[in-house]
Amino acid sequence: MKKLLVIGAGGHGTVVADTAEAMGNWCDIEFVDDRFPKLNQFYKWKVIGNTQSLDTYTKHDVDVIVAIGNNKTRMNYITKLLQAGFHLATIVHPDAYVSPLSTIGMGTVVFAKCVVNAGSKIGVGSILNTGCTVDHGCMIGNGVHISPGAHIAGEVRIGDLSWIGIGASVIQRITIGSNVMVGAGAAIIRDIPDHAKVVGVPGRIISEGRTDTRELE
Question: Do 98 and 197 belong to one domain?
Answer without folding.
Answer: yes
